[in-house]
Amino acid sequence: MRENCGQYAHAVTCVVMALSEMNRGDDAWHCLDMLKPINHARDRDQADIYRVEPYIVAADIYGEGQLSGRGGWTCYMGSAVWLY
Questions:
Q1: CA distance 36 to 83
Q2: Each residue's pLDDT tens digit, 10-68
Q3: Is residue 55 in a domain?
Q4: Which of 28, 31, 76, 81 is at a distance of 20 to 30 A from 18, taking alpha carbons?
Q5: Is 60 left (phi over 0), alpha (psi -120 to 50) or beta?
Q6: Predicted model pTM
Q7: Cβ neighbours of residue 17 under 8 Å, at least 6 residues apart?
Q8: Distance of CA 64 to the CA centre of its chain
Q9: Is 54 inside any structural domain?
Q10: 42: three-class secondary structure by DSSP
Q11: CA-closest candidate to residue 37, choices 51, 49, 53, 26
C-alpha cells in the first residue's frame, strides 16, 4: 500500500466500507483482517520479517525480493484514521 490512495490504506479501507454497505460482512471482515497491523507480527518470526510497530498502520508492506513482508512508512495519520 502507498501513495495517493493507490497504495495508501485509504483506498483499501474504502473497499472494506463498501463491502459492509453491500451486506458482504464476511468479505469485509476478511479484507479488514488482512489490513490489521498486528496480523503481520503475531509471533517472533513474523515480527522479525515485518520489522515495524505491530500497532501502527504501515503505508508499505513490501511484496518482492529480500524485503518481502517488511512494513515501512509507518505513522501515516490518514491511513490510520481511515482504518480505525
A1: 8
A2: 677 888 999 999 999 999 999 999 888 899 999 999 999 999 988 887 877 888 899 99
A3: yes
A4: 76
A5: beta
A6: 0.71
A7: 28
A8: 16
A9: yes
A10: coil
A11: 53
Three cell numbers written together for 33: 483482517
Assess contact for 9 and 82: CB atoms under 8 A: yes
Which helix (H) or strand (E) covers residue 3, if one does?
Answer: none
Q: How many domains does the chain have?
A: 1
4 within a domain of the structure (yes/no): no
Q: Which residues of 50-64 are buried (b: 16+ CB within 10 A; e: fewer)?
A: bebebeebbbbbeee
Within a domain: residue 2? Answer: no
- Burial class from Cβ neighbours inside 10 Å (0-12, 13-18, 19+) for residue 9 reads buried
